[in-house]
Amino acid sequence: MFEFAVNKLRVQLVLAAMLFLPTAALARQNDESTPVDEAAGIAFFEAKIRPVLIRECYACHSVQTGESRGGLQLDTKSGLLVGGDSGPALVPGSIEDSPIWSAINHDDYEMPPGKQLSMSILEDIEQWISMGAPDPRTPETVAVTGTVSEDDIERGRKFWSFVVPVLSTVPVSDTSWSLNEIDQFVLEKLKQNDLKPASDAGPETILRRLCFDLVGLPPTEAQLKSFEKLWKADPDKAVATVVDKLLESPQFGERWGRHWLDVARFAESSGKEVNATFPQAWRYRDYVFDSFNDDKPYDQFIQEQIAGDLLPVEDDEQWARNIVATGFLAFGPKTLIEQNPRQFTADLIDEQIDATTRVVLGVSVACARCHDHKYDPIPQTDYYAMAGIFRSTRTFYGTLNTRQNRRPSQLIRLPIKDADPIGEPISSGELKKLSDQLADVEVQLQETAGRRREARNNPDGAQTLIREINSLQTQQASLQGLIDSYDEKGKPRSLCMGVQPVAQPVNAVFLARGEIDQPGEQIPRGFVQVLDENPPGIDSDSSGRLELAQWMTRPENPLTARVMVNRIWQHLIGQAIVTSTDNFGATGEPPSHAELLDWMSVTFMNDGWSVKQMIRRIATSRTYRMASTFDQSSFEQDPENRLVWRGNSNRLDAEALRDAMLAISGKLDVERPLGSEVAKAGETIARDGVLRSASTMLNLQMQAEKAGLGENLTADKIRNRLRRAARDRNGNAGEMMRQFAEQQPQADPNVAYRSVYLPVVRDSVPRSMEVFDFAEPSMIVGTRDVSNTPDQGLYFMNNPFVIDCSNNLAKRVAREASSLPAQIQMIFTVCYGRQATSQEFHAAQEFVTAFETETSSDAGTKLAALCQSVMASAEFRIVD
Asked: What's the rounded Cα separation, in Å, for the pair 224 and 88?
């Protein structure tokens, strides 16, 4: 196994090879710099350098003017040394390593734009850099003050959730009811409040509960018959047997992985003003599903997502998985239209801190960005200590470099090829055609930009040219992204979202009120003080991300195990022990069963952080089996069922509801699809539920050439010529136009695979998900909202998907059951997991008869109407 140092070197070498890292290191003193008297050096700067900077540079690069083009500010010494988007602007003593020297010589950049500095000024700047760049300027920094004292932090460590959990003593209660330790804790709490547990639910109810909770699918008729037989022989063994089978099902990882995606704010687009797609986000989704199926230890699961690129690995396959895991830090919502790169970076880091702390630790450190979080207590300095960790990290999310997207990003090349890549290889000739087309667009862009400069005095004409330039820039970016997705042989590249370390870690600067133009002193990288009296240190050459991941998952951390066990309990019991699932702080809700939570947390860690083992403990308990029977006396004492005196009835979430309709209709495809609709679209912009992609352009060009419409056409030109040809009644072109529309990937595709594989495009969530309270992709959602709206009823009445499932279920029933009585019973069995009662049976018969009389419809239509009615009922979408 590689040592950490070797792996870190490997990371940096690979990144340098991919040109992902800036070539210049942060400011360092060159041993060969010319010795100079400090006073003389400062005098030289004041006489020769500062006036030039003020006159030529401050208009575009200073705090006073509010401009920091390229993220660069030149009115402070730190601004020069830290630099902007391209890294440090200046390396004292080294002309060759100072990008500002190349810029003022108009080598790589032109500074000032359109103007060459005189030779005497260039000589002065060269002399200044060579003497070590003496610079007396220091920014007016704000003092680091706060309201959280050391005493506050010390007292805060005594708060219940900030104390390391210990293995609670299991109460000795009525062992005739209890099946394991969980039941003992629950029963003891009920006795303390003069409550009694409800009776056990029936076998059909328990099986349906288990199937939906563990794999998100309804039980099949075969499962119902098998479980009924096992239940008669031994109920305890029957439950244990089914639990084990469901935990080994591939559908388990999809069900429980989706729970994790809720809190991980997984999405396949940036959202906000420029909804750019994340075509590689699906890799993280599949990584999560595989991790739950493999029962990956939870501490390892967390470490891989926070610092997978820094963990030691045994082979390239493991390293690739770890890099994909760091996508957790990459796919949060982003304001890509942000003009100020410093603001964008600050917001990106803030989002990463918020996700990391709330998802894993259940505390909101991001609240301390602008002010001390006194209640917990977390001072601002703790926030900026963590900010330094993420400031020492580069984030790769992959979006098109368009005029609207001012903050584009590259992707990371994986060290291994996909066994089954998305997209077909293209020939060298096809790749050359794309390159030629890109060159043609670039020529058009240059020509149009020239005409735009000439038309400055003609506002109307200039606006037309600006729109044309924007269109050409988008086409240029789309083509470049498409070309970059292939290697030199025309094979699709294996790319992913994720993070990587920077060449030289840095500390974050304290910002008063979180404002980027109110800097204070640097804050050493570190962790949240209230959670650890003796936190580990961070080496100067380390970002601290690996140390952060290890600190969060060590047994002494008071929160990580508690937060995850609480999430598991919520998804099985229907209500969390700590109902504020992402807030275990002072402003959160207190636990209903504190001793049970601690016992499960310690047991979780002792079981090797096994999620499956914790699920097995809860699902095989007597507590899990309780019926949802209502009791007036118990309800008056505990109306919210916080003490778990009965089972909870919960509506199916959006994915389980859609999957259930597909499953009972016999159309569900349980195979994992390759990638996603967003991956097929590539890097593009999502609008109105359509992923407008450049990936179909090559095929369209070939069709256009065959139809005699021209060569090397842009997508817009292809559309226009196809429309014209269609209007001219050119049948071939009309067919091509239809194909073009079909080839545009949809954010709400009509597919039969599981709902967890539907595209998650921010602001364009599929209708079947949105109407039933799908987790908002831009937020950390530990507990989904549950609503009951007219839209949901109308969805079951009118949506084509529901009608199609009803028709398919009717066809299935007609094939498998010969008589109407048998058909009615089958419909109830597959929909509800039980036989119809006598009253329901007669009502169904009357419905079919009345429907046939009123409409004179055939048998298939009346069965479909019955199927739709049963599916639209409350019992179908509620797990009792």
From this structure: 67
C-alpha distance from residue 750 to each of 230, 747, 787, 867 (Å): 39, 10, 25, 21
Token pair 């066809």 in the structure block, residue: 811
Q: Is 181 exposed, middle or buried (0-12, 13-18, 19+ CB in 10 A)?
A: middle
Quick one: how far is CA 311 from the chain centroid? 21
Q: What percent of the chain has pLDDT over 70?
A: 84
Ramachandran angles phi, psi of 170, nearest 5°? -75, 125
Of 492, 478, 379, the closest CA to residue 693 belongs to 478
Rounded distance between C-alpha atoms, residue 2 and residue 322, angstroms: 14
How many other CB atoms are found less than 10 A from the CB of residue 752?
15
| Half-sphere exposure for 810 (CA within 13 Å, toward CB) | 20
Q: pLDDT (tens digit, 9 = 90+) per residue, 381-440?
A: 999 999 999 999 999 998 877 777 888 888 999 999 888 888 778 888 888 888 888 898
122 HSE (CA, 13 A, CB side): 13
Q: Which two tokens stand for residue 458?
A: 């003609």
How far is Cα 745 from Cα 717, in angstroms, rounded to an integer?
20
**256 or 128, which is more confident:** 256
Exposed, middle or buried by CB within 10 Å (0-12, 13-18, 19+), for 349? buried
Phi first, then psi, for residue 664 (nearest 5°) are -70, -25
Rounded CA separation 786/804 (Å): 26
DSSP state string for 205-248: HHHHHHHHHHHSSPPPHHHHHHHHHHHHH-HHHHHHHHHHHHHT
Is residue 707 pLDDT above 70, yes or no?
no
**Interatomic CA distance for residues 694 and 688, integer angstroms:** 17
Residues β-bridged to residue 753: 669
Q: Who's near 780: CB < 8 A, 6+ residues apart?
A: 263, 264, 265, 354, 355, 358, 359, 582
3-state secondary structure 10-59: HHHHHHHHCCCCCCCCCCCCCCCCCCCCHHHHHHHHHHHHHHHHHHHCCC
Question: What digits encode the pLDDT tens for the residues 163-199?
Answer: 999 999 999 877 789 999 999 999 999 999 999 999 9
250-263 helix and 203-215 helix, angle to the nearest 10 degrees? 60
Burial class (CB in 10 A: 0-12, 13-18, 19+), 595: middle
Partners of 486 in the β-ladder:
492
> For residues 583 and 192, what is the distance between their CA atoms, to the nearest angstrom?
27
Inter-CA distances, 366 with 87, 379, 471, 795, 870, Å: 26, 11, 38, 39, 47
DSSP 512: G
d(CA 581, CA 564): 9
Residues with Cβ within 8 Å of 213's Cβ and at least 6 positions away in sequence, in order, are 571, 572, 619, 879
User: Over the stretch 808-843, which tens digit does the pLDDT of each residue have?
Assistant: 999 999 999 989 999 999 999 999 999 999 999 999
- Please give the pLDDT value at position 698: 47
Alpha-carbon distances, residue 637 vs 193, 581, 634 (angstroms): 9, 24, 5
138 or 503, which is more confident: 503
The number of helix segments (H) and strand segments (E) in the chain equals: 36, 12
Integer distance in angstroms from the first to the last C-alpha of the chain? 49
Q: Which stretch of DSSP H or E encloses residue 395?
A: strand 393-396
pLDDT at 694: 47
- What is the C-alpha to C-alpha distance for residues 122 and 100, in angstroms, rounded to an integer? 11
User: Phi and psi (nearest 5°) for 388?
Assistant: -60, -35
Average pLDDT over residues 525-546: 93
Mean pLDDT score of the chain, rounded to an integer? 85
Whether 273 and 680 have beta carbons less than 8 Å apart is answered as no
Residue pair 384/510 in contact (Cβ under 8 Å)? The answer is: yes
Question: What is the pTM assigned to this prediction?
Answer: 0.83
The torsion defined by the Cα of 128, 129, 134 and 138, in degrees rounded to 10, comes to: 120
